[in-house]
Specification:
about 160 residues, 5 strands, 5-stranded parallel β-sheet, alpha/beta, about 45% helix
């Protein structure tokens, strides 16, 4: 796990990124920070699992080859795909990689993520993340409204 411990307050927009490529990692950290996210990075699969279980991240971006040679070997992606929905519903999850076609809904569905982004479009990451988060927020709006009503009224 990374040596630093970072507090997250109620006003923060926490994001967790898991990249093996140092260039992509630095680009993503910079772009997400410019969007106002408090960015945490996962160095390994186990680091990702620990961090994800401790904070309700609003955004998660995973490189398709994070800690792996192929997307099929990506243990972090596999863990997210098999995680119960209530453990990951709070986050907009984006998969980024060379094999992805940006904003292809069936590809995102296939990988159990909200959006996919081709790494060739990393220069548009800010705009693509904004769109993915807005789309997911709109999609989840009714669900969250009902959940809040049940939580606040007990019915």
């Amino acid at each position: 796990m990374n040596g630093s411990f970072d507090f997250v307050s109620g006003g923060d927009k926490p994001a967790l990124i898991a990249f093996s490529s140092p260039e992509w990692l630095e680009t993503a950290k910079t772009e997400l920070a410019e969007l106002g996210f408090k960015v945490h990075t996962a160095a390994t699969h186990s680091d990702f699992l620990v961090r994800f279980s401790q904070v309700h991240y609003q955004l998660v971006v995973i490189e398709e080859r994070f800690g792996a040679n192929t997307i099929e070997e990506n243990l972090t992606l596999q863990a997210l795909q098999t995680m119960p929905m209530n453990q990951r519903r709070h986050a907009t999850i984006i998969l980024l990689g060379e094999s992805c076609q940006t904003f292809m809904p069936m590809e995102a569905f296939k990988h159990s993520v909200h959006a996919v982004i081709n790494s060739g479009e990393l220069f548009l990451l800010k705009q693509l993340v904004e769109k993915a988060v807005a789309d997911n927020t709109l999609f989840q709006h009714s669900y969250r409204e009902v959940q809040n009503r049940i939580y606040n009224t007990g019915r």
